[in-house]
Amino acid sequence: MKKYDCIVIGGGPAGLSATLTLGRARRKIALFDNGTNRNRVTQESHGFLTRDGIKPQQFKNIAIKELESYPSVSVLNETVMGVNKDDQHDLFLVHTSNNQSYITEKILLATGIQEEFSLTQIRQYYGKSLFSCPYCDGWELRDKPLAIIAENDEHINHLTKLVFNWSKDLIVFTNGHQLSNKVQNDFKSKKIKVYTAVIKNLHGNHGYLESVELETGENILRSGGFVVPSFYRPNKFAKQLKCQVDENGGMITDDAGRTTESGVYIAGETEKAGPSSLMIAAADGNKAAFSINMDITLDRF
User: Fold this and answer.
1) One Pfam family from the UniProt entry (predicted)?
2) What's this model's pTM, rounded to 2 decimal places?
């Protein structure tokens, strides 16, 4: 059974960044990735210096190519099914879908999060014409007739005001939920129309939105927009390892990637259970790698 200094689970920007830093520190690292990263549906990634507009898979390919320069790093295209701690030897056992097991001293969880939508039709357009982050995709939708699709008063208020920076042609769809008078008045002053009727369907071609159909029979033309998903962690590794979370579902850490469980580290969206930019996630991975390497150094010196 192969033994590593650290196993990194998740090949998004956080996991890749951490693996690069640890490889450069001459640590024996295994990076596990199964290609289910959240941004795989996105056509372009934005806001990462020197890589603005890059396709997510191209970003990952470049990073993996860079890792090949470090002989102590292994990139394994396997799905991790479970992680257990061997308290007697202070090690972790990682089990994969192809019935392989690996041993490691430290483990970094960088598996990210996934979206859930109240409207199943959103998935057909998500990443092409409907997005969740204006900072990531607002520029491409600037000045277009956009839809804001959300059901929570606070979320609608926040997202609409933010997107207004990129386009003044906004229509809010609450899918059957009512807005407070204050929010409605704020929107009215900016000539932002609100439809509270239930959404019957979304219409478009090849992922590009054309209109929003309501149960009232109205069909409102829109060419893109922003939505508010809910997010969840796609696996139970943190729970299996008994890592503690706060009242909001975020992982409790020391702000340097260390969780409440010795030897377990976390980085990127996995930590906050909320969305993050490529650059911030990569920085989180780099920071966690510093902690991992220093802890290994102190353990062995």
Assistant:
1) Pyr_redox_2
2) 0.93
